[in-house]
Amino acid sequence: MEQLNRLKSKSEPTLTVLIFVTIAIGIVSGLAGMFLALLLHHIQHVAYGYSHTLAHPENFLQGVSASSIQRRIFVLTFCGFLAGFGWWAIYRYGKPLISIANAIKSDKPHMPIGTTILNALLQIITVALGSPLGREVAPREVGSAFACWLCAKTGLSTKDSQIMVACGSGAGLAAVYNVPLGGVVFILEILLCTLSWSAVIPALCTCSIATAVSWIGLGNAPQYHIPNYPLSASLILWSILVGPIFGVAAFRFHQITTAARQSAPRNWRVLILCILNFIVIGLLSVYFPQLLGNGKGPIQLGFTDDLGVDLAIRLLILRVLIVWSSLQVGAQGGLLTPSLANGVLLAIALGGVWSIAWPGTHAGAFAVVGAAAFLGAAQKMPITAIVLTAEFTGINFNFLVPILFAVTGSVSTFRFYANRQANINPNQRISIP
Fold first, then answer.
1. Backbone angles phi, psi at 233, to 5 degrees
2. Same domain, 175 and 289
3. Residue 134: beta bridge partners?
4. What sections of 94-136 are H helices per DSSP?
5. 288 and 190 in a common domain
6. Angle 360-361-364 (CA atoms, 0-180°, nearest 5)?
7. 174-208 confidence digits (pLDDT tens)
8. Is residue 431's pLDDT more than 70?
């Protein structure tokens, strides 16, 4: 009896601590996601002069398009200087950055809070100024860094700490994009690779809390607004046939971006190369303002049937090039929204060809399916990509059928090429960045 009481006395505080840590991570991740998103919007408005009110209906693409050519080039030049100097200073004077994946694998999860926050702020600021990389890594890193610190302070076990660090990452994603279920699936499918109750329960709690907290400043509207597109036999057959094409494209994109990250400079060269890279992007924005930012503008245009095939092909080629070049020169950022954008642009191009033989399907319908197919393969997260696409757009339930077909084809093809590469060159195995 005494032994049972001792076990209870030991387990009860642990459960109390777990509940406290779970709630705290959800709240802090939500606040971090909200703050970083508001900071991004404010910098965009100030940089391109289209509004000083965060609730202004004019979006980033409209603001960039309305700004002068000189302003775009100046802002991108400043972005290059800030990116180069900022990351050079972090590499030179900051503590070594630890990725979320490596922190989760560690027996004692740790991420340097100061350096991680500075890295996250640099990502948000440069994306706001026009960097083509994604913003989702920043809130994920802040959430995970806080989780590492809190778990160390509360003395959680290694297993519980690893789960909480993953939850901090997923909760940050959920907060910044208003995707609570997507954040949960991301934690379970990508970061922890488990469906155990010990992971599912805190994942559900942290992502729900973080999303609700972010609503205070960001609202609860979906990221993208799309018309109510009808489902057709043409779209379903197209999704079956083009899935492998998205898989091949995603595999090549993953290859070049991974290689670019690995070979990016960490010394004084990052300053010079970043300035040159972003000046070129600024010059390109004179003719293609849709290139600036993480890709949300082209995605919205594609989803609403406002993007032609010719422009989509040009933007696809240019966006792949500038995402690759930005990573190659040492800039940091995510690839979630850039991957979505690639999928949308490729889908509009392929859908345009398909419509010659079988007209009647909206380009926006192709875009929704293509976005999920490319994202699922390029980031090796098929289930997460499907859930994210549904939450991003609020699509009808029956639209999941063509999405499932396309994602199946793209991910299977990606896996085929990844396995073939591993057999040819074992030193170049595909892994999650």
1. -65, -35
2. no
3. 334
4. 100-105, 113-129
5. no
6. 140
7. 999 999 999 999 999 999 999 999 999 999 999 99
8. no
> Are 61 and 181 members of one domain?
yes
Q: Do 107 and 149 have their domain in common? A: yes
Provide DSSP, 258-300. Answer: HHHHHH---STHHHHHHHHHHHHHHHHHHH-GGGSSSSHHHHH
Q: Does pLDDT of 6 surpass 80?
A: no
The 10 Å Cβ neighbour count of residue 397 is: 7
Question: Rounded CA gap, 373 and 342, in Å?
Answer: 10
The last residue of a domain, from among 185, 218, 251: 218
**pLDDT reading at 384 higher than 90:** yes
370's CB contacts (< 8 A; 6+ apart) are 242, 246, 343, 344, 346, 347, 348, 350, 351, 406
CA angle centred on 142, ends 48 and 219, rounded to 5°: 55
The helix/strand/coil state of 328 is helix
What angle in degrees, to the nearest 10, is found between the helix axes of 382-393 and 400-424? 150
Which pLDDT tens digit goes with each residue over 247-283?
999 999 999 999 999 999 999 999 999 999 999 999 9
* Length reported for the chain: 433
Q: Does 364 reside within a domain?
A: yes
Are both 213 and 238 inside the same structural domain? no
Q: Could you list the residue range(s) of the whole structural domain that residue 405 is in?
A: 233-428
Whether residues 238 and 334 share a domain: the answer is yes
